[in-house]
Design goal:
heterodimer; A: about 300 residues; mainly alpha; B: about 325 residues; 16 helices
Chain lengths: ~300, ~325
């Protein structure tokens, strides 16, 4: 496997934990230092935009325009937060985001669970076709225009269904869930069948209670995707009181129609706040994700791993 | 990520669970038997199947409007056949070739950076011995993956604005502030670096998982053979994660043509069209700004077919050369 370069004995040291034997050569120590520096840079570069946006959101507009805001707020003020939070459209759109996310996630979970359970039954006749129907859509899709024509002609425009239904099943999530169901021991289900449970009963009373972890992961996957989505709403929802908060933010940064509300409030209060307005809206839109992230991160990782191992 | 099921024609040799052992297999009757036996299971598949048929396969059929004259509000499958008229139209359209080139360039640059960098980061993380530090770096680097693309675009705009951090650095270095987002020559850099920022950390997960499955004995053996750290990485670690690399490479190639449509839509503007406009954004404008649905659908179909061909050939090549493939 390895070309023998020199017959010198390996410099073996006692192995701490499960790591491969550590060779404390000078070169390796240098590498460790370089590695630490690189990873520190990665952390700083990843976090800087967040810190910067928070600093901008709490700074006075004048300092931002002068290009003097980096890590800490200059001319600290929370006025812009008050401004955005007093915009009723912001609240309406935020509520829409919650409603859309919950509705779409519930539909997605039901659909994905049912189909994944069916696909996990290895002895089911026609299973290959059912899997193929789903997997093919990962690599070929109808495209933007036919989808738009379809959603419009189904009369789904300007309703939550235009966001929830066309994206009800994510095939990657489906395959992760299928892999999980396949890994469950079959004996319990057999016992349920012997006790006279129907397929629905087995799924509801035996399989789902065993699958809480994967269902939680799927809820998170779908909820984050719907929470973050903007394009479907942008395409299908014409009225501003229907928008989710992502479209609110999009219009603010694009300077498009619908953003004039909060601008008008700013003007009425004689506040110069164009740059801070954007920063504040970014912070307020990101906040929920940042708050739950530390607690849910491991579920995401677990879900991805599961999909990788058996997907 | 092999997803293909065993061919359904092969009836399982093991007796099916929770059912009395069946009668001898007779090909004609098996479907009826399967339906009678498993109708409850099949019934669970009805709604999902309807979803796939309506929202995935119907739009594929809807692509016939690329060959037909379509009028908004009219028949969703178009009014009458026009053959390849719209395809000839875009093939003769210089703007199309410009956006086609942009798509290839952006796709290639994304692949060039966003495919190898997660591998590098995963290898670096794998060498960190302080577990807490490792976990901290991981948590931080995954974070951008969870942000809405709108937020990412908004952050990019703030950082690159005339008063943003990047221009502060430029000024500190004695330069003139640059309106980055108005200049076509900067767009590719901006696009790719924001893509790296958002995806590289999350991209390490699968590699880190694969790294933990490598047998410690292999390292032991290679060390006895006199391999130093670098050689161990080259001869043990990289071959160990090769299946993951190949799988992800194929998947990346599959999305090559569909370069970040939403992000470009948020970040570009008429000034940067020369480098930023890609097939999907062009067809978006053709469809929605110019209401030329048939023309846009023709371009979309062309793009989807190329994407399918790319992923199929990547898969085939991978299977022939390294023996790993998606199916």
């Amino acid at each position: 496997m390895v070309s023998v370069e020199a017959a010198r004995p390996a410099e073996t040291a006692p192995r701490p934990g499960r790591r491969r034997g550590i060779q404390q050569t000078r070169g390796y120590r240098v590498f460790q230092v370089v590695n630490a520096v690189i990873l520190t840079i990665v952390v700083v570069v990843t976090l800087y935009p967040f810190v910067n946006i928070v600093a901008r959101s709490m700074s006075h507009e004048a300092y931002i325009i002068a290009g003097q805001v980096n890590l800490v707020p200059r001319g600290f003020t929370l006025d812009t937060y008050r401004l955005v939070l007093s915009d009723s459209l912001f609240w309406t759109n935020y509520r829409n985001t919650v409603v859309y996310t919950v509705t779409a996630t519930v539909i997605s979970i039901v659909m994905t669970t049912c189909y994944a359970y069916v696909l996990s039954k290895k002895q089911l006749k026609g299973r290959g076709v059912l899997v193929g129907i789903a997997v093919f859509t990962m690599f070929f899709s109808g495209g933007l225009i036919p989808n738009y024509v379809l959603v419009t002609s189904l009369g789904l425009k300007n309703s939550v269904w235009a966001i929830a239904l066309p994206n009800a099943i994510n095939v990657f999530n489906l395959l992760v869930m299928k892999a999980f169901f396949e890994s469950l021991p079959g004996e319990l289900e057999e016992a349920g069948a012997v006790d006279g449970l129907s397929t629905y009963g087995i799924l509801w009373r035996i399989v789902l209670p065993l699958s809480k972890a994967i269902v939680a992961t799927m809820v998170l996957f779908y909820a984050v995707a719907f929470w973050n989505s903007w394009f479907a709403a942008f395409l299908y929802l014409d009225r501003q009181e229907l928008w989710p908060v992502t479209v609110y933010l999009r219009n603010l940064i694009a300077g498009a129609t619908g953003a004039e509300n909060v601008g008008a409030i700013a003007e009425a209060n004689e506040v110069q706040a164009e740059a801070t307005l954007k920063a504040v809206t970014i912070v307020l839109t990101t906040l929920p994700i940042l708050l739950v992230y530390p607690f849910v991160q491991r579920y995401f990782v677990r879900g991805i791993m599961l999909g990788a191992v058996k997907g | 990520m092999s997803t293909a099921a065993p061919p359904p024609a092969l009836a399982p040799p093991a007796p099916p669970a929770r059912r009395p052992p069946g009668a001898p297999r007779a090909p004609r009757r098996t479907w009826r038997r399967a339906l009678r036996r498993d109708w409850q299971l099949y019934s669970l598949a009805i709604l999902p199947l309807l979803f796939f048929l309506i929202f995935r396969y119907l739009p594929m059929l809807g692509n016939v409007i690329a060959f037909r004259r379509f009028q908004p509000g009219g028949n969703i499958f178009g009014e009458y056949w026009v053959g390849l008229r719209y395809f000839k139209m875009f093939l003769a359209d210089p703007t199309f070739w410009n956006v086609f080139t942009n798509t290839l360039v952006l796709g290639a640059l994304t692949l060039l950076f966003c495919f190898p960098l997660p591998i590098v980061l995963a290898l670096l993380l794998n060498e960190v011995r302080a577990r807490k530090l490792k976990r901290f770096v991981q948590s931080v680097s995954y974070l951008p993956h969870f942000l809405s693309i709108v937020i990412v675009a908004a952050m990019v705009m703030q950082l690159l604005s005339m008063d943003g951090t990047v221009n502060q650095l430029v000024r500190a270095g004695g330069g003139e502030a640059i309106p980055f987002l108005q200049q076509p020559e900067w767009f590719r850099t901006i696009y790719v670096s924001s893509e790296v920022w958002q995806t590289v950390g999350w991209g390490t997960i699968l590699y880190l998982a694969a790294l933990t499955t490598i047998d410690d004995d292999l390292y032991e053996a290679s060390r006895i053979d006199g391999a130093n750290r670098w050689r161990q990485t080259w001869h043990v670690t990289l071959p160990g994660i090769r299946p993951t690399m190949v799988t992800l490479l194929i998947l990346n190639i599959g999305t090559f043509m569909a370069v970040g449509f939403e992000k470009i839509l948020l970040l570009y503007n008429p000034l940067t069209y020369p480098t930023a406009d890609v097939i999907s954004t062009y067809l978006f404008r053709m469809g929605f700004a110019s209401s030329n649905f048939s023309y846009a659908a023709a371009i979309g179909l062309f793009e989807a077919v190329i994407g399918l061909i790319l992923v199929l050939s990547a898969n085939l090549i991978a299977r022939r050369t390294v023996g790993t493939s998606l199916w």
